[in-house]
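Anyone able to model this chain together with flavin-adenine dinucleotide?
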Amino acid sequence: MTEPETVVARARVVSATRVSPHFARIELGGEELADFGVDGPFYDQRFKVVFPSAGRPAPDLRAYGDGWYSVWESLPEAERGAMRTYSVRDVRGVGADRRLVVDFVLHLEPGATGPASSWAAAARPGDEVVVVGPRLGADWGGIEYDPGDAARVVLAGDETAVPAISRILGDLADDVRGHAFCEVPTGADVLEVVAPAGVEVTWLPRDGAGLGERLTAAVLGCLGGLGGEPVPDEEVDDDLWETPTFSSSDADLDEPADGIPGLYVWIAGESKVVTTLRRHLVDDLGVHRRQVAFMGYWRRGVAMRG
Ligand SMILES: Cc1cc2nc3c(=O)[nH]c(=O)nc-3n(C[C@H](O)[C@H](O)[C@H](O)COP(=O)(O)OP(=O)(O)OC[C@H]3O[C@@H](n4cnc5c(N)ncnc54)[C@H](O)[C@@H]3O)c2cc1C
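re: yes, here you go
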């Protein structure tokens, strides 16, 4: 029998640390994570977490390998729990000591929280979730960062993209040049990152400014643009996912355009903010769709489905 490409593991909280007002760093461990990993850098590797419903155990999906999703979907709602997507911040240890580090954004305003944020805010050692992700030695996918031979990279995102940007920065070769822009809720949410000397990291605390305002201005400013009027709500795709190889809006990725030579751009965060940046970069600044990844990681007012 061939080994599945997916690791479906029960994982337990080993430690939970509030590293800033809006970030909880949670280390998940357990021997079933032993094979979780990729053969190269993680970059923006994503994976799924299934959080148990209140008072219930996490669903046991371990037996289903690559077919886990249809089994999970067919479970009664109360047994299914909630599934959300997260980024690898770090992986430590080997074998039974394998630990997966996840930086969870806490958004705890009444009426605007969800199962993942609530779980992370209350997580204690021993709490259990199900992790679904890449298996060492297999080609599971889930990494979008792909600058090709670009000489300059621009990374940009809000707090939900900070874990992926931090991991990408830590995985870059020493000679990479570019900028990283990280918008976070407050000045106290600026986290420590390791980056190559040629990549300038700029933190953009909102401290009361509107979501995406500072990020949009900084990214457009860096690429020589102005303005940044937000797109209307009705033009926002909640599941925005536009990469050099995939378009959630069926855009023509091969549309003839010169692009900006030597540039690669990676942008993730709230879908309306990312849609606004996409429009300005592609329509006004002439960035070619093949040199940029625009990813909606969440949508204000919308509960994610996984
Ligand atoms: C590829 C990928 C990687 C991701 N990596 C990370 C990561 O490493 N860390 C991380 O924290 N998130 C990450 N996210 C985002 C995370 O999956 C979403 O924020 C998710 O909606 C959180 O689920 P929830 O159950 O807390 O809220 P949901 O049930 O999805 O939403 C409930 C309410 O909370 C609001 N909401 C959701 N997220 C936020 C937020 N960040 N700030 C304010 N309000 C919010 C929604 O608008 C909605 O009104 C990633 C998403 C993707 C697609």
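The longest helix spans residues 271-284.
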